Amino acid sequence: MLEMRPDCERCGADLPAPAPGAFICSFECTFCAECAEALDDLCPNCGGELMDRPTRAAKLLEKFPASTERKLRK
Q1: What is d(CA 61, CA 49) in angstroms, rounded to the nearest whole number?
Q2: Fewer Cβ within 10 Å of end Cβ, the chain: N or C?
């Protein structure tokens, strides 16, 4: 199951689990749309392709909550 990380690792922008606009690689490194575009849709951590992260339905967020651990890299 996806962690649904709450922020962009590059700029720290909030990326709520039920909202579109997040991009992830196969290791779940997470970036906002603007940063993914600036990175040419390639993860700077592993070199993998950044893809649209699916959203999680609100009723399922109660049972399977998103991660709250922020991953901003400074």
Answers
A1: 26
A2: C
Q: How do the domains of the chain map onto residue ranges?
A: 1-59
pLDDT on residue 37? 97
Note if the pTM is more than 0.70. yes
Beta strands in the chain (DSSP E): 22-24, 30-32, 51-52
At residue 61, φ and ψ (nearest 5 deg) are -65, -30
Other C-beta atoms lying within 10 Å of the C-beta of residue 42 = 13
Residues 61, 67, 70, CA angle at the centre, nearest 5°?
Answer: 145
